[in-house]
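User: Predict the structure for this protein chain, please.
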Amino acid sequence: MDGGFGSTAGTPVEDWISFRFAGDLHIVARDGVRWIVSSAIAEMTGTVARPYSGRLLRLGKPAGSLHPHAAAAVRSFLASQCCEPEMIDRILADMSNSSRAGEYQF
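Assistant: Here is the predicted structure, written as structure tokens:
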């Protein structure tokens, strides 16, 4: 068992980065086919994340930097949250230029 979720449950994702937006934790990752941004994460244990939507994500290798396609997915997500284009540009610049690996907060 993996954090109580089951070792084979969920969608495997790679090159993931977590970020907080409006107080909620999200993950942008590659699911093997496309880049996705998760709904808000309810629970996260080492290798599995459970968004409130219920779609389990099995976390593979984290990203060392923000991939251009991941940035496009984040841009689309933030636009859907009614963020102004200038704010989106600042957030993505911070994610791209940050030396911190892992979680970004906005």
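The chain has one domain: 11-99.
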